[in-house]
Amino acid sequence: MSNDSTAPAYRPATRLLHAGLERTPFGETSEAMFLTSGFVYDDAQQAEATFLGDVTHYQYSRFGNPTVAALESRLADLEGAEACIATSTGMGAVSSALLSHVKAGDRVVASRALFGSCHWIVANLLPRYGVETAFVDGGDLEAWQAALSRPTAAVLLESPSNPMLDILDISAIAELAHRAGALVVVDNVFATPLLQKPLELGADVVVYSCTKHIDGQGRVLGGAVLGRKDWIANTLQPFTRNTGNALSPFNAWVMLKGLETLALRVGAMTGNAAAVADHLAGAEGIARVFYPGRPDHPQHELARRQMSGGSTLVAFEVSGGKAAAFAFMNALRLIAISNNLGDARSMVTHPATTTHMKISAEERARLGITDGVIRFSVGLEDIMDLKDDLDRGLAAVRAR
Known about the structure:
CATH architecture of the largest domain: 3-Layer(aba) Sandwich
Number of domains: 2
């Protein structure tokens, strides 16, 4: 898309197709894939000037690559961020955002409701390097205020959270965090760039597992970190370049193709998720349903203010604990059992024994992740087929 200030202000679905597209002299319609580890120079002087930073020239695909740069440009355009760095995985994005920013003696405050690997980084990895960490209940603003009454280097949160779809007040938390001097990092995977804009709500950095909705078809791994240009260039980029957390050009190209249909997929999947949540609510064998788009969600009004849709995921609790949850899942014929999410195909997982199994039972209980909880990533199948499959699961629970 043109950088001309007089160019039309295209809407997200259009930008997903055209932003960051730079054609080679061959005039290809699809983005070129530059599967190359390195680049050559016209002469030794150009190589020296490149390494000095005096000229702009690709050096090595761990540092930068035209295909990866196209993905970064498109993601930044969609997010409304000044800059983006793509990483090898979503956890690579989270870990790089934190480790590049903090040092021994610093302090990190995080929401208690985090994906299992994110929780491990805060609870186990950062303290190994002399970083003090603290967890708070994400929905308790008084707890945030108390935790952020001391100088803090970074804050990490998810909203909606994995797997219970808790909604956190990003604006209020960001205001408290900034008073404490903290960089606010928001994992926006469950909302996608289309349903929520954390930077507009006061966050400093947004992280994604591009493996999820951005690829959206279960093909490749990748992540992204987005934020201010100065922080990306001076803090994050030296870390990712020198530690090797680089996205492959092939994966970047696949994700560029995924972005072209993101708006269509997320819109349809969100509609299906809302219908699934309504179908499960009140059904015999279901104790609770958690979906931000439903009025009975504890933070429904906050979700309406922060998000333009209810997410593509639904969490629900099956009556009867682990045995009942397993019976439900094993009875499904269409919906796959997988710990991935954001895929075009519907998937369920049992967080207590998969994504959050390394978190203590006590901590899971505080988060509401009982042995009966199932996380459902709703796909693009016909909604009637999904309802029929869910009814198979419900019948298996009732038959126990």
